[in-house]
Amino acid sequence: MLNKPVLLFYCQHSLGMGHLVRALTLAEALLERFSVVFLNGGRFPENAVVPQGMTIINLPPLGMAEDNSLYSQDERYNLAEAQLLRKEKILAAFHDYYPQAILIELFPFGRKKFASELLPLLKAAKRRKDNTPSVLCSLRDIMVNARKDQVRHDNRARWLIDRYFDGILVHSDPNFAGLEESFRPSRLMETAVYYTGFVLPRGESAKQQERQRQVIVSAGGGMVGAPLFQVAIKAQPILWEKLKLPMTLLAGPFLPEADWLELEKAATLSQGLTLIRSVPNMTELLANHSVSVSQCGYNTVMDILRSGISSLVVPFAQGQEVEQSNRAARLSSLGLLCTVEANELTAERFVSEVEQLLNFKPNSAALDLDGAAKSADIIYRLVTSKTEAVAANQHFANGVAYA
């Protein structure tokens, strides 16, 4: 496709890498219809693969501390310096690339702390009178809705959406979770909501093969995976003695180095335990194992559903983070996996659950899993219709002028 319209895609991952993985999957699908300029706001993992043909602009990375405060992940800049440079880079990208579409991941439903760099972008897009870009929000299936000021938060998000956005893409099957379940502003939102289906991870599906009798333990990017890994390490000697069951532990690129060194030390004392720091995608690993134990982030679930592996999820739940527990409960009720709360998981419980999973067959319930392609179709249709409307108005205006 010659002269593809330009799409500016903003993604900020602060804790794990789920937002980045989903965004890169979407970007790859979008490249078939758009020239994609990707604004990356977090640390970019060394083994992450950039879709061919995509322009990536790495902003000074910001992370989220345990107290929910932002901090600069680039030692060259303090927080204020990083924030100023990020805002300048975002506005420069908008003016330099002249996008016909802007896709913003999560904001304003989340990422409130990044409003200082996103509101200037949204205002610049709204002020552009010639070929005003289509602005859309990209959302996962389930939002955080346990804030103390939830109604105020939702009302603010609704106001921003109706003022600056042309549509919301919810990457979910509406039969699984609807936006209205976790977003309840006092006034109805006027902006259109589009359900795209779930966004499966990139890459070809692994060929069906006989699974090896072994368990894989993972925690997404690994930033908050240490407690799960510690239980797995304690459980492995029991699993090995009872079942001679090998374990692969996938740490993730963001597991703190001190925790990784502790795992390496423990691995030297455990039979049947293999450690892997990180991989580009989970497809082949899951295809070669019979049981998965993991957290319950969006992308982890997509890997599980894609592979059809028997799975136990231990949802991450701290403070207001109830999204994973909500997702796990829904998937468990559909017979797609088993779940245990983190505070209930002991080494003995771990072993018991894995033993049961060896005979567990996930229910092949039908969920819409074509979210990446459908997202690209929706955005392209919106951009095209807006362009055609502008052309029609110009033609009409010219006709009046020459009448």
Order of helices and strands: EHEEEEHEHEHEEEHEHEHEHEHEHH
DSSP summary: helix tally? 11
- Which structural class fits the helix and strand makeup? alpha/beta
What kind of sheet is the major sheet?
7 strands, parallel
Mean pLDDT over all positions: 90
List strands and helices in order, with pairings.
Layout: E1 6-11, H1 18-30, E2 35-40, E3 55-58, E4 62-64, E5 70-72, H2 79-97, E6 101-105, H3 115-127, E7 134-139, H4 150-164, E8 167-170, E9 192-195, E10 212-218, H5 226-243, E11 247-250, H6 257-267, E12 273-276, H7 283-287, E13 289-294, H8 298-307, E14 310-313, H9 323-333, E15 338-339, H10 347-357, H11 371-401
Main features:
403 residues; alpha/beta; Rossmann fold; 7-stranded parallel beta sheet; 6-stranded parallel beta sheet; 17% strand; globular
Q: Can you offer a commentary on this structure?
A:
The chain has 2 domains: 6-200 and 369-401, 3-Layer(aba) Sandwich (Rossmann fold), CATH 3.40.50.2000; 212-357, Glycogen Phosphorylase B (Rossmann fold). The protein is 39% helix and 17% strand. It has helices at 18-30, 79-97, 115-127, 150-164, 226-243, 257-267, 283-287, 298-307, 323-333, 347-357, 371-401, and strands at 6-11, 35-40, 55-58, 62-64, 70-72, 101-105, 134-139, 167-170, 192-195, 212-218, 247-250, 273-276, 289-294, 310-313, 338-339. A 7-stranded parallel β-sheet has the order 3-2-1-6-7-8-9, with helices on both faces. It is globular, with a radius of gyration of 23 Å. 42% of the residues are buried. The model has no long low-confidence stretch (mean pLDDT 90).
